[in-house]
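Structure ticket #2291
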Amino acid sequence: TRAGLYDIGLDFHSYDFRSLIRDASRIDICVIHAEKWFGNHLTVLKEFLSHKSHELRVCLLDAGSDIVPILSRELHYKEGTLEQRVTSSIEALQSCITDVEKDGEHPGHLQIWRCGRTPKHTYYRFDDKVFLVPYNISAGHAKIPVLGFSLDNSGVATFLSNDFEHFLTDHSKKFYDSRQ
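Resolution: structure written out below.
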């Protein structure tokens, strides 16, 4: 279809992101902190970054942003928890580069960006596959769907991909670049 629908997963927590990471050479991620997600995928992300030609760009919430207290209340986090989760995610990602270098390899390219805007959804791109994961608008633990779109078919994937690029350039600051 023109929308480019690729896949619909009914539960974010059981979706097979590992295969997408293994098959990709370029990944973009935009999340609040994704501390658990990064922790659950750290081994495959390290493998991904062990390829010099691979690129991983991650945009996380700026822990110093004015929206941190608001999001902390919405997420029912104690004071300082959100900031710590962002920091943990950054440290986990940077450890992938450090570990690859310790293994004597030339790591892929990791960029970490920080934004101060309230996210509307999470965004993942694995080469030509783009995924949107909505945030819950109600309290509780519901299964969260994963909506996948193909850039080959344009439509929604092109909008999301372009929106991410504008988000980086217009609303985010580069915090870390493994090649600088």
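Closing remark: The chain has a mean pLDDT of 91.
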